[in-house]
Structure formats: C-alpha cells, structure tokens
Amino acid sequence: MKREITPTLDHTQLFKLANLVISFGIILVTSGGSWDITNHILNKPETFFAPPHLMLYSGVGLALIGFVALHLSWKKSGKDHRFGRGVKITTMGIAALLSAGPIDFAWHSAFGLDGLLSPPHLVLIVGMSLTSIGALVNTKSLQKSKPSHLGIIISFIPVWFSITGLFYSFSLPFSKTDYFDFNPNPLFAAGFASIAYPFLISTILVSSTIFAKNKFGIASLVGASYLGIMTLSAIIPNHTLIPTIPFYLSNIIPIVLGDYILSRSKNSKSMMISGAIFGSAFYFIYYPLITYTYNEITLDKLMWPSLTSTIYFEMVPIVAPFLIVSGALVGAISVKFAQKIFS
Amino acid sequence: MTAYFALVMVVFPDTYQDIQIGVPKPSLDATLSASQITLGESFELSLVATNLGEEADMQTVTIEFPQNKNLDNIKITSYDFLQSPRLYLKDTEIGSTYSGGVTITQSQYPFIEAYNRPTKPGQIYTMTLQITPTETGPYTIYTKTVAMPHISEISHYPTQGILDHQNEFVKEHVVHVIP
Asked: Which of A12, A66, A219, B172 could form a disulfide with A21 if both were Cys (CB 3.0 to 4.6 A apart)?
C-alpha cells in the first residue's frame, strides 16, 4: 500500500526558531556595542569595518532575518492573537534599528564624531531594547505550558544588555563632542546608576527564575552569560584589566546564591532576599565601566585605560559600603516589579 | 555573601594594589636640516619619537613656535603617528603641568601636537616639518614629548630645561635667519 506523505510546516516551530534568531541577533549587536565602547576608550583606530562594527552589523542582519521569518510564520498561522503584542513590539524595535543607520549617517555628516548619547545612538539602543523585549514577550507567550530553558536564557540576555546600554547612556561621561555636550551631570549619573543598575539586575534574574518556574540554574546561566560576554568585550580588550578577571568572575557567587534561594522557596520574602543579594552586587557586576561614573563624584581622577582598575579599587572603600546597602534595597523592591510583569 | 564581600572588598583589592603600574618613558630626537638660512628659504625639522618604558595610553609630541602668530609658514611633509596631528593657535584652552587636561591654561603661541594612543614600547614614530621663517634673526622652536598616564618625572622628555606656556619642560632649537 502506498502511503501519502504530505509535508506540513509547523508554523509554531518556525515562529519559535525565528524568535530565538532575533534574540541571538540582538546579543551580537549588544556584544559588538560593548566591544566598540571599549575600543573607543582605548582609542583604537576606527573604521566602518572594525571587528566590533562587523559583529554589530551581523547581529542586525541576523535579527532582520529572524524578524522576516517571524512575520511570515505569524501570518501563515493566521496571525495567532497570542503573539500579537510581541510581534508588534518587535516590529517597532526592528523599524527603529533599521532607521538608526541612516540617522547615524546624517548625524555624522553634519556633526562629525558622536558620543555615547546622541540621537542616532538613542534610536539604535531603543531599537535593540524593543526588539529584544518583543522577542521575550513572544517567548513568554510560547511557553505558557512548558518552558524551554534555552529559550528563556537566550531571550533574557539581550534584554539585559540592551537596557544596560540605555542606562550607560545616562550614567557614563562619554558623550561630549566638539558640537554637543550630552554628558550627564555627574551627581545625576551616580544617582541614576545607583538605582537603575540594581533594579535591572534584580528584575532580569528574578524574572528569569519566575519564568522558568523556579528551576535552579536558569538565573545562574543568564548571569554567567552576562559576566562572560562582559569579560570578552569590556575586560580582555584592555590588557591592563586582564589580571582582574578572577575578581570579575567572582560575581557569579551572589548570582548562584540568589538563584538557589529562589529555587527553594516561592514566597515573597525569599524572593526579596534574592533580589537584595542580586542588587547588592551591582557595583561589582558593572565593573569596569562604572568606574567612570563614581570617579566623577569621588576621586575625580583623570581616567586612563591603564588606570581603570587602580581607580576602581581605590573607590571600593569609599563607595561600595553605601552602594551595597542601597543596591540591596533597590534589588529587593524590584522583585515586586518582576513579579508583576512575569507572574 | 560574607565570603563574597570579603573577596571583592578586601582580598582582590589588596592583591591588585601590589601590581605595579607600568611607567612609560618617552623619548624624542629632533634634528634641524640647517642652523642658518637666508630669509625666504625653508628648513626641515625631523622628529623621531619612541617609548623606552612600558606601554603608554597616550604619547604626545609637541612642536611649539613661540615667535609665530599662526601656523601658515609650517608644513607637515611626513607623518606616521597613529592619530592625526592637532593644530593649536594662540589663546586656546589647553592642559598644563602634565595634568592631561585637568589643569587648564591659555596657549600663548601656536603649536602642533602629534600623538599616539596607545604607544607600545620600542615603537618608533616620525614626523617632518618644513618651516619657512618670515623674519630675520634667531627663529626659535620648542619640542617635547609627554606620556600618559603621567606617573613620574620619566613620563616626560626633556626632564629639565626651559618651561613653556604649559609649565612643562621643552628643548629649544634655534635657526638663524639672515637677510
């Protein structure tokens, strides 16, 4: 008897894959961006085809391919209403990402080099953030019944990185050019960093655990990925920071500890303790760039790439005791936010 | 968490405190093509800069023209530093006292600054200037090189001599211009 085989395309599978490709693309964009910031600090010669730029362009290309596939599969599935919100956010993000290129070109033509915070860079960062948030919303809609751990990890990393990029813009003094001085006021920058970074760390790590139904290891893997990418893009390119890698990687300790507490209990108190643990480590997790933020209001030393770690560790006894406490408070409070958006 | 905070606040900072910061030692060799010229003629100033110490985040080579009002009579004929040179005119805000820009002063005369970011040990960078004095008499040029971060006295060259408008040591070069 002849059996008839009808090839069928599983639109949900394609949608899931496309969504992962988008998130992975944004991981490349943000990692390339972080590497590019380091190269700017080191003043390495910059060309259109510099390796960090190539990484960034590849990421945009990959995100675009993922977006086209996502749209096609969504259309073929009859525009499944479950994914409507995620697709809409991703579309806005991709539109912003694509428009950032010509805006950047026009800005460079008119004003030459730009700093970290500039209209084209803001469009790019908002585009990255919206695209990754849209992909995360899709992951959430896809995985209501059975969460895929890989999907959760890949979806959270670009959200963490792209929002970090947004927060960097308002807390790092890298935005003064010949035409404009968009550098944030040093006091504002330090205050903003003291609230925004612990809030972000805690929200991301607690949310990923809630998302994974309190499975131990997910927040640790998201955290380890963050530390790994930062080591590769912000520490290793500056050879004077290489000896500090063991210090930086020790930040996995509070991440694993918080993750463990989250996995043992679902009650609010335990979750807030975990949030406090995550938030309390923000000054150490945001090494080395955070040195620039707090140096301005404490030591006010002239920053050179080779002096970054010296100045950072000199500031530890001055700022860390206060920032550990304030970070813990913000981290605990942000658990409520994570519960609200992900429960 | 106690162990973690002990690590990141005590153990690691103490460990890294013992790591010595590499001190760069910039050096500059300046050669004039002539010690005397006739008004209307040009002479060349050749500069060879190197770093004999540890890697510097930045090394600047400065050529100052205390008698000039502008840089119209100066031409850069060769240049292989990593970054493009910067030209400064009189009354520009500039850094002083080897502060890397933290202490500010006003320039009193024009100057050219060549620079490398970073400067690896032993690498050589050169620049040649063609200069056409516009008046007779002794024509003075100052040269110096400074490495950043400026850690000690060996982070600049020369280490003694005349102080310029940035309150930094310079080497003087004179060409006699005859009618």
From this structure: A66
- Residue in chain B lying closest to A316 (CA): B9
ipTM at complex level: 0.84
Q: Is A247 in contact with B83 (Cβ distance < 8 A)?
A: no
Cβ proximity of B121 and B54 under 8 Å = yes
Q: Which chain A residues have a beta carbon less than 8 Å from that of B103?
A: none
Q: Do B99 and A302 touch (CB under 8 A)?
A: yes
Closest residue to A243, CB basis, from B19, B57, B102: B19
Same domain, A212 and A315: yes
Q: Please count the residues of chain A.
A: 343
**Does B4 sit within 8 Å of A253, measured CB to CB?**
yes
DSSP state of A50: -
- Estimate to the nearest angstrom the gap between the alpha carbon of B6 and the chain centroid: 43
CA dihedral A317, A321, A324, A327 (to 10 degrees): -110
Residue A92, in any domain of the structure: yes
- Of A158, A193, A208, which residue is a domain's last? A158
3-class DSSP state of A223 = helix
Determine contact, residues A125/A167, Cβ cutoff 8 Å. no
Residues of chain A found within 8 Å of residue B148, distances taken between Cβ atoms:
304
Residues A115 and A212 in one domain: no
Number of separate domains in chain A: 2
Is residue A149 situated within a structural domain?
yes
Q: Which chain B residues touch A313 with a CB distance below 8 Å?
A: 12-13, 16-17
- Answer whether B17 sits within 8 Å of A313, measured CB to CB: yes
Q: What global pTM score does this model have?
A: 0.88
The greatest distance separating any two alpha carbons of chain A, rounded to the nearest whole angstrom, comes to 84
Q: Are residues A211 and A141 in the same domain?
A: no
CB of A274 closer than 8 Å to CB of A259:
yes
For residues A336 and A222, membership in a common domain is answered with yes
Ordered per-residue pLDDT tens for chain A, 343 residues: 444 444 445 777 888 899 999 999 999 999 999 999 898 888 776 777 888 989 999 999 999 999 999 999 888 877 778 888 899 999 999 999 999 888 888 888 888 777 888 888 999 999 999 999 999 999 888 876 566 888 999 999 999 999 999 999 999 998 888 788 889 999 999 999 999 999 999 999 999 999 888 899 999 999 999 999 999 999 999 988 999 999 999 999 999 999 999 999 888 899 999 999 999 999 999 999 999 999 999 998 888 998 899 999 999 999 999 999 999 999 999 999 999 887 6
Domain that holds residue A248: 185-343
Domain-embedded: residue A172:
no
- CB-CB contact of A258 with A224 (8 Å): no
- Optimal mutation site among B10, B12, B116, interface A, most CBs of chain A within 10 A: B12
Give a yes or no: residue A193 inside a domain.
yes
Q: Are residues A235 and A318 in the same domain?
A: yes
